[in-house]
Amino acid sequence: MKLNFKLNLSLIAGAMLAVSCGGSGGGSSESETTSSTPAATPEPPKEVNLEEKYKDDPVFIRGVELMKQNDCPSCHMIERKIVGPSYADVAAKYESTEENVEMLAGRVIAGNVGEWGEIPMPAHPALSEDDAKDMVRYVLLLKK
Ligand code: HEC
């Protein structure tokens, strides 16, 4: 009987403790948590955001428009290699000269392999040369 009573007491005390810790949170306990753990906003990458840098350039705007109508984004991203090289990598490799634009536009239309690895870029026979060139101009614009 005595033992039982003691046990009950400690159970009640335990329950009360749990309530006062977890459940009684008014405004004060919330502000405590925010001040002790500073908001963990992820640091933006230090390098330049190329999209931000060139977003007002007409070559950029035209390129984005054309890319959206084609399958390019499924294999290419601006700053990250996915299936194909990133546009930034392509831009770093080639000067933006008229010859290079023509040469690369030809490769986009005909397809290419071996320049960046074993994965081929499929041909885009439906593309006009002008559109292909506009897309390549956009790619080569994206220098850091
Ligand atoms: C199925 C995936 C795929 C698609 C779709 C694709 N590419 Fe590619 N692209 C690649 C791969 C892979 C390479 C690397 C080819 C190589 O190593 O020669 C590449 C390379 C390139 C290059 C660099 C060529 C060189 O010789 O250095 C350019 C520019 C390019 N792509 C533009 C485009 C454009 C513009 C489109 C849309 C019309 C497009 N790609 C669609 C996979 C793709």
Kindly summarize this structure in a few lines.
This protein has 144 residues and is mainly alpha-helical.
Give the topology, please:
Elements: H1 2-23, H2 27-36, H3 50-54, H4 58-69, H5 87-93, H6 98-110, H7 129-141
The structure holds heme C (HEC).
Keywords: Electron transport, Heme, Iron, Metal-binding, Signal, Transport
Pfam families: Cytochrom_C (PF00034)
Binding site for heme c: 72, 76, 121
Topology as H/E string? HHHHHHH
Uncertain segments are 22-28
- Main sheet characteristics: none
Q: In CATH, what is the class of the domain at 50-141?
A: Mainly Alpha
Structural class: mainly alpha
What's the CATH superfamily of the domain at 50-141, by name? Cytochrome c-like domain
Cα gyration radius (Å): 30 Å
Number of helices: 7
CATH topology of the domain at 50-141, what is it called?
Cytochrome Bc1 Complex, Chain D, domain 2
Give the helix proportion (percent range).
55-70%
Mean pLDDT: 84
Which architecture of the domain at 50-141 does the CATH hierarchy give at level 2? Orthogonal Bundle
Q: What fraction of the residues are assigned to beta strands by DSSP?
A: under 5%
Kindly state the number of beta strands.
0
Ends: how far apart? 81 Å
Q: What is the 3D form?
A: elongated
Bound molecules: heme C
Q: How would you characterize the overall build of this protein?
A:
With 144 residues, the protein is mainly alpha-helical. The protein has a domain at 50-141: Cytochrome c-like domain (Cytochrome Bc1 Complex, Chain D, domain 2, Orthogonal Bundle), CATH 1.10.760. Helix content is 57%, strand content 0%. It is built from seven helices and no strands. It has helices at 2-23, 27-36, 50-54, 58-69, 87-93, 98-110, 129-141. The termini are far apart. Residues 70-72, 74-76, 83-85, 90, 104, 107-108, 112-117, 119, 121-122, 124, 135-136, 139 line the site of heme C. Heme C (HEC) is lined by residues 70-72, 74-76, 83-85, 90, 104, 107-108, 112-117, 119, 121-122, 124, 135-136, 139. Keywords: Electron transport, Heme, Iron, Metal-binding, Signal, Transport.
